[in-house]
Amino acid sequence: MATALAVTVAVPPVDLPSDAVGLRSFLVPINQETAVSQTFAMTADGLRAVEVRPDATGTAVSGWVEFALTEEGSGVLRRGGVPAASLLSATPYRLEFAPINDSKDSRFRLDLMSSDTAPVTGLAVWATKGGRYADGALQINGRDRWADLTFRTFAPAGRSIWDRLMEMDAPPPGISSRTVILAALAVYMLMSGFVLRAFSRFHS
Hints:
Blueprint: H1 2-10, E1 18-19, E2 25-29, E3 36-41, E4 47-52, E5 54-56, E6 64-71, E7 75-83, H2 84-87, E8 93-100, E9 107-114, E10 123-129, E11 138-140, E12 143-144, E13 147-149, E14 151-154, H3 161-167, H4 177-203
Antiparallel strand pairs: 1-14, 2-10, 3-9, 3-11, 4-8, 4-14, 5-10, 6-7, 6-9, 10-13, 11-12
Helix pairs in contact: 1-4
């Protein structure tokens, strides 16, 4: 029972769509001639952000990056924009938007493009060659490429209970901070015991 509780608390219940930087990584520029997209199949409700990994190309960074999130069969659900220089203020950079409550089992496409009125210069995003992410692909100007954008999606179901405890600014009403700390320590002890037992069995 204790082991099952520890695993339940520590392991996120859902694997959210993502792809990390790989060995065959490369930069894709975002400018007036090049729009970058990534398709993916969402595995949880409440999609609320997509993280990308921007980088400078060596020239002065300027302009305004526009983004759009399109659901297959429904059209554009979310859109926004951010100064190109702001994307480089945090790597990776998280594009946040109002949560999509019924996002599970839907297919989405994230588009990153230059504003027509404030053209982007000096900015690119990382991607990796190969079919690494099975449920989507990198697109450049609307055409599939044998690659995936370096990206990560966010939804409430993708965070473990442990993560939520650690990120909590204040405990819920009726629950003291002491209770939260004790619960976190109990989880830690359960996890430690589970790991030690598994290690001893492996070496016995």
